[in-house]
Amino acid sequence: MSEPWSDVGAVSSLESSNGVITLVDESTFAISGRAGDMVPGSAQGLFVRDTRILSRLELRINGVRPEPLSAFAEEPFSATFVGRCQPRPGRVDSTLMVFRSRHVGQGMREDISIRNFNDEPTYCSLELFVDADFADLFAVKEGRVGGDPDGEIDSDARQGVLAISYRRGALSRGVELRFAPEPASSLPGIVTFEAIVPAHGQWSCCAEVHPVIDGTSVDPRYLCGQPVERAAPAERLARWRRDVPHVQTDNAQLRQIVERSSEDLGALRIFDPEYPERVVLAAGAPWFMTVFGRDSLITSWMALLVDPDLALGVLQTLARFQGSDIDPRSEEQPGRILHEMRFGEASSLSLGGGNIYYGTADATPLFVMLLGELRRWGLAREAVDELMPNAERALEWIERFGDADGDGYVEYHRATDRGLVNQGWKDSYDGIRFADGKVASAPIALAEVQGYVYSAYLARAHFAYEAGDATTYDRYRLKAAELKERFNRDFWVDEHGWYAVGLDADKRPIDSLASNMGHCMWAGIVDSERAPLVAKHLMSAEMFSGWGIRTLATTMGGYNPISYHCGSVWPHDTAIVAAGLARYGFMEEATKIITGLFDAAGALGGRLPELFSGLDRSELPVPVSYPTSCSPQAWAAASPLMCLRTLLRLDPWVPYGKTWLSPVLPDGITRLRIEGIPLAGSRVTVDVDGPDVVVEGLPADVELLREPRHPSTAV
Question: pTM here?
Answer without folding.
Answer: 0.88
